Amino acid sequence: MDAVKQLKTWIGESGNTIFLGGAGVSTASGIPDFRSAHGLYMQKKQGISYEEMLSHHYFERHTEEFYEFLRHVMLYPEAKPNKAHYALAKLEQRGKLRAIITQNIDGLHQMAGSRNVIELHGNENRYFCLSCGKRYDMQWVLGYEGVPRCSCGGLVRPDVVLYGETLNEQDLARAVRYAEEAELMVVGGTSLVVYPVAGLVNYLSPQAKLVILNREETPYDGKANLVIRGDLCEALAAVSKE
């Protein structure tokens, strides 16, 4: 049986399917991935890697440069959901997808209509004051010159997990629970090398099926029941058709 048809059959039969996604889900929306041969983390600015510039250490010590980098390289305010986002939203609406666990911070899953989304790395559309907790959004930050300061004078930071910071424990615990209870986990657009997120695969029960939908090999391909190398958007769009 064709691999995509097999996946569609398994989703139809499963009473508990979850989706674990990464940067590859959003590349068709014009947002670059991170760890491919041409990904953002392979690039440097003035000798500093993009990964370093997204670290807690860099944010604290070079706040102005951090925000300049964020505004001009990392934020994509015009990005819209693609076929993959809409396909997953359809599956959720039909009761065939229990949850989306994402490493992405772009908020495109929610924009497409998905409701139960666990954003393990936060959301680039949310910002908050480190002093009073007041909330701001991306448009406010983009329109602010220099380092964003709250009306109280406090420093405003993005509500995302920077390198060197730990994930939100409650979000991670929810993701683990969904993985433990899943009958089918579909992994899409992620290299499965960043932990602890990649380790969620290990929480699947022995009876659960694992499907990996990624252009490049992952360390978990040998553990998967099905590996699909094709276009992620087209595959998920085909799977979501009634």
From TrEMBL:
Chain sites annotated for binding NAD(+): 23, 27, 34-35, 103, 105-106, 121, 190-191, 214, 231
Gene3D superfamilies from the UniProt entry: SIR2/SIRT2 'Small Domain (3.30.1600.10), TPP-binding domain (3.40.50.1220)
Known function: NAD-dependent protein deacetylase which modulates the activities of several enzymes which are inactive in their acetylated form.
One Pfam match: SIR2
Span of domain Deacetylase sirtuin-type: 1-242
Catalytic activity: N(6)-acetyl-L-lysyl-[protein] + NAD(+) + H2O = 2''-O-acetyl-ADP-D-ribose + nicotinamide + L-lysyl-[protein]
PROSITE patterns: SIRTUIN (PS50305)
Molecular function terms from GO: NAD-dependent protein lysine deacetylase activity
Family to which the UniProt record says this protein belongs: Belongs to the sirtuin family. Class U subfamily.
Stored NCBIfam families: PRK00481.1-1, PRK00481.1-3
Enzyme Commission no: 2.3.1.286
Annotated compartments: Cytoplasm
Origin species: Neglectibacter timonensis
Annotated active site: 121 (proton acceptor)
InterPro entries linked to this entry: DHS-like_NAD/FAD-binding_dom, NAD-dep_sirtuin_deacylases, Sirtuin, Sirtuin_cat_small_dom_sf, Sirtuin_class_U, Ssirtuin_cat_dom
Cofactor(s) demanded: Zn(2+)
Keywords: Acyltransferase, Cytoplasm, Metal-binding, NAD, Transferase, Zinc
Main location: cytoplasm
Annotated nicotinamide binding sites: 34, 105-106
Cofactor note: Binds 1 zinc ion per subunit.
Amino-acid positions noted as binding Zn(2+) in the UniProt annotation, renumbered to this chain: 129, 132, 150, 152
Gene from which this protein is expressed: cobB
Enzyme class, spelled out: transferase
Protein's recorded name: NAD-dependent protein deacetylase
